[in-house]
Sequence to fold (528 residues):
Amino acid sequence: MWTFLHKLGSPRHFYRISGGMLPWLAWTTALLMAAGLYGGLVLAPPDYQQGESYRIIFIHVPSAWMSLFVYVIMAAAGAVGLVWRIKLADVMAAASAPLGASFTFLALVTGSLWGKPMWGTYWVWDARLTSELVLLFLYFGVMGLHAAIEDKRTASRAAAVLALVGVVNIPIIHYSVEWWSTLHQGPTVTKFDAPSIHLSMLVPLLLMALAFKLYYVTVLLMRARSEVLERERSSAWVRELARGT
Amino acid sequence: MNGPGAGYAFVRLLERDLVLAVRNRGELANPLLFYVIVATLFPLGVTSDPKTLATMAAGVLWIAALLATLLSLDNLFRSDFDDGTLELMMLSPCPTTLLVLAKVLAHWLVTGLPLLVATPLLAVLMAVPEAARWTLWLTLLLGTPVLSLVGGIGVALTVGLRRGGALLSLLVLPLYVPVLIFGANAVGATAAGLPVTGQLLMLCAFLVLALSLAPVATAAALRISID
Amino acid sequence: MDALREFFHMGGYAFYVWSAYGVALVVLVANVVVPMMRARDLRARLARQARLERSP
Fold:
């Protein structure tokens, strides 16, 4: 087990092993997503309050879950790279940022598209939407730092510090925004969390959540492979690989 | 190095930064003037009706203070980084976190404190209800050091970049959200006759948290930027 | 046929539901295609570099 992990930690073996894993991951993701979509769009009955509009939940909620999950993973990978100087951890953190921002963006857009029929307007300064917006800005900060610093090693370390500061701040921001929004409009907009969700809706929701998670892993590996090749450009194994093709 | 030595370094660095700031009077006045001008533009741009002004005064003054701090943040490490002083400081046996704390304290004394002095005047101009003026001042007293401390992290991360200004605001402003929320809302609550002990304690908690964690993060970021 | 039309109609919420799914599709596909294109460019660049080094 440890030797396997150790091997995986070296860029060269990572490149080889991840190449073998990718097709499996991609197909599983596609299957899960198809099953989730079929269950969510076709099998699940309309909601008795929201009619068909609630079907946005099957992409909105998984995106929102992923937006936070990816940030935590990014910060954790950044910390590992910062402390133990593991190159692969740096690569993972760098590859996570645009993906996390995409999920956050999706959560925002689908949330506002769901809000229009439910609240009568595309945007409400609801606690969750607002925290999600701030989270998007935090992602942009990390991406901006990656883009601005020329040297990739330095960029990764700086972004890791920023991501760790963000992880400390996210609960505080979330709590503040929640407090602020209850102060301003009262707890009127909690329609999103139905008290109990029917099994025919819960199963596709969980399927979609799992599909999103696997999607993240798949694309993360794809991005990480390119990043590894680019960063290890001058190493012997990359040269060998380039000569082979 | 023993305790008194580190304390001595702290005091000397603080002294040096303050002397440098006073010698450079133009720079010194900039954030303050910015604060006053932004606050003046709001009545012109929105309305001069005292009632409307009173409801938004706290938010406007808080955001103006936030931007004024942001504007002045770049001075925190820039000149010392450019001439290599910063690198020498970090090579000294004195812990970097302590040096960071000294520099941030100097920054707050030079930018945060003048804002506090100007605030009572602007509170009158912005028609802040009399009962809420103390609260506004108190929230700014507790909040502006947090702005300097958290901003320090952002500057430390971007100090090695040629054009770090726009990036700095992207990094730092989202982190200012909690302080802004509690600071501005405390003032509104006072005006509505509600107790604000909770908000003030929250700001105290932010200050303690920033005071203990931000210098560590800033020192780490500086080490990365200098490498 | 009617069932299909009803499915696309989404009980009157067609615009919101389908645009939400459409945006999701675009974002998810873009996140796959962009790294793929980048990977191909990179591999071509590395191969060219290798050829140049072989034939001085």
